[in-house]
Amino acid sequence: MKINGPIKALGAMSGTSLDGVDAAEIVTDGVTIKAFGATTYRAYSDAERSTLRSALGRWPGDDLAAAADVVAKVHADVLSGFEDAALVGFHGQTLAHDPGGRGTHQLGDGAALAETLGLPVVWDFRSADVELGGQGAPLAPFYHWALARFIGARAPCAFLNLGGVGNLTWVDPAANRPEADGALLAFDTGPANAPINDLMQARQGKTHDADGHVAAKGRVDEAIITKFMEHPYFYVMPPKSLDRDAFADLTAACDALSDADAAATLTAAAAMAVSEGLRHCPTPPETLWVTGGGRHNPVMMQMLAAALDCPVRPVEDADLDGDMLEAQAFGYLAVRVARGLPTSCPGTTGVRAAVSGGTLSTPRP
Fold first, then answer.
1. Residues in CB range of 160: below 8 A, 6 or more apart
2. How many angstroms separate the Cα of 24 from the Cα of each of 38, 119, 314, 332, 342?
């Protein structure tokens, strides 16, 4: 696919929090952000979410027909509602992530989606990175570099995505390309919304702790937090990444707590993991820009502000859309893949050299 200048790309993201599918348009040449376009969100139904949840931790070769059907139908439904997109970035649904072992598994058939939409689709973004020794995650950092330059950042800043897992990107906006030495450092910080969402689903039949109301009524169990912070992951130097359920012991430790105390403790764990992660940054960020669902939780944001030494601000303060940032990222990355530009590098995933991941599938004439 030949790209000579900015095009309108459409990105889609379904995260490990299993809330639904975000889709967003972005106009870019894969280097500079020119404009943002239309967005939409499609929540999973309870039945769809249950089907996907039952597939978590499973790998190719397992019986995943029902989950694959959910991913295919929901993404086709969401993405067919857009017009004029020249290219689609399709992340798929992460079911398992074990970069030091079996690899990484995102459920979804981009070739079939290309046929359904009649558009070229870039997909399977992570496999090439893992095959070259990388963590395969996080992948949004190259987009964070473009965002830092788009908002006019002059000093190093950081982007924190609070999805199912938290991930942090430290950005030097003075770098002339994202793969340049010292331009980026990125890694997963620890659990974020996934344990809280699982708690709320199991105890109250709700998808999440809306506005942090349950956590706000609870008390943090400091003994659990102390034990949590002794986890070996926090002693590993970045880049590094996590599976959604890597901290199952934390969830189990909260089983005996009340709903409120458990929610408060899990929320505090997410904030403390970020605080620990910031110690790895080359320099303190001027601002921590927060995106993802966790920024809607005022208890989470208050705990972050109390734990960190830099301003903590939602990305909306920079006129960005925190609900759609990851979907935009995969539209941006799709253009980079189509142009043969790198999508990850040693500073973001630990891959041996900058690599352009992703598979480009085009519909048959």
1. 166, 167, 168, 169, 189, 274, 288, 289, 290, 291, 292, 304
2. 6, 15, 19, 10, 22
The candidate with the shortest Cα–Cα distance to 11, out of 29, 34, 38, 33, is 38
Which residues, 6 or more positions from 235, have their beta carbon under 8 angstroms from its beta carbon?
none
How far is it, in rounded angstroms, from Cα 70 to Cα 204? Answer: 24
Q: Name which of 306, 219, 295 is nearest 254 in CA terms.
A: 219
pLDDT digits (tens), the chain, 365 positions: 788 899 999 999 998 888 999 999 999 999 999 999 999 999 999 999 999 999 999 999 999 999 999 999 999 999 999 989 999 999 999 999 998 889 999 999 999 999 999 999 999 999 999 999 999 999 999 999 999 999 999 999 999 999 889 999 999 999 999 999 999 999 999 999 999 999 999 999 999 999 999 999 999 999 999 999 999 999 999 999 888 888 999 999 999 999 999 999 999 999 999 999 999 999 999 999 999 999 999 999 999 999 999 999 999 999 999 999 999 999 999 999 999 999 999 999 999 999 999 999 999 98
Q: What is the DSSP letter of 254?
A: T
End-to-end CA distance of the chain: 14
211-237 CB burial, b ≥16 within 10 A, e <16: ebebbbebebbeebbeebeebeebeee
Q: Say whether 21 sits in a helix, a strand or coil.
A: strand
Using H for helix, E for strand and C for coil, what is the string for 306-321?
HHCCCCEEEHHHHCCC
- What pTM did the predictor assign? 0.93
The conformation of residue 230, written as its DSSP 8-state character, comes to T
Tokens coding 300: 């989470």
Strand runs labelled E in the chain: 7-14, 20-28, 33-43, 87-98, 103-107, 121-123, 157-162, 165-171, 184-191, 288-291, 312-314, 359-361
Our measurement of the distance from residue 150's CA atom to the centroid of its chain's CA atoms, rounded to an integer in Å, reads 20
Contact in structure between 192 and 356 (CB atoms under 8 Å):
no
Return the residue matching tokens 């995505």: 161
Q: Which of 325, 322, 327 is nearest to 300 (CA)?
A: 322
